[in-house]
Amino acid sequence: MECGCTYSLRIVDVEELPSDSVFAKFHCDQCGFSLGAEGSDKELDSMVPLTLWSDEALYRLSRLPPYLRPLVRQEVEAFASTRGQKVVTFARVESARNKGMVEWSPDAERRINNVPSGIRAMAKIELERTALDRGMPAVTVALMEEVKARYFGMASRS
Predict the structure, then answer these.
(1) Which of 34, 79, 91, 154 could crosslink 96 through cysteines, CB 3.0-4.6 Å?
(2) Does 31 map to a domain?
(3) Does residue 14 lie in a domain region?
(4) For residues 81 and 51, what is the distance between their CA atoms, to the nearest angstrom?
(5) What's the whole-model pTM score?
(6) Do 76 and 124 have their domain in common?
């Protein structure tokens, strides 16, 4: 992106928002102009020249043992690169760690959208992780009910 002063805008930060979107901050080093853009991580991938980690993704990385951090970082960036992804978010770290192999049934996908946005990303991660641990190819409504009952004691009554 180009600033009004004809110099390039440099991306300085990416912040994950509760609504499953990201907010990117751009800055012009020449004139000091700053700009923000909100969108999905997919939309912002084309605006980012090099791989950029969100603070949330870096925090996830920092929680790993020191000897694993560079290995996981390399694994995540390689996975993102093969998919043309430049913005690394918390969800993309988990997707890379899971090799992106878990699908979602259409019913489960519709249902996850009813989960409050503040916990939706974490719920998705836990559901996908559980499915992978069990060797399941997809997240299903039955799995969602089971996980909900396990963590919240809130399974729906049939």
Answers:
(1) 79
(2) yes
(3) yes
(4) 8
(5) 0.63
(6) no
The CB-side HSE value for 52 (13 A sphere, CA atoms) comes to 23
Distance CA 82, CA 8 (A): 26
CA–CA separation, 14 and 37 (whole Å) = 10
The angle formed by the CA atoms of residues 129, 133 and 118, to the nearest 5 degrees, is 15
Report how far residue 59's alpha carbon sits from residue 95's, in angstroms, rounded to the nearest whole number. Answer: 16
- Give me the number of domains the chain comprises: 2
pLDDT by residue (tens digit) across 79-111? 889 888 899 988 788 778 777 778 888 899 899
Q: What is the mean pLDDT of residues 16-25?
A: 82
What is the mean pLDDT of the segment spanning 46-64?
89
Q: What's the CA gap between 158 and 139, in Å, rounded? A: 19
Position 120 pLDDT exceeds 90: no
Tokens coding 153: 């004691």
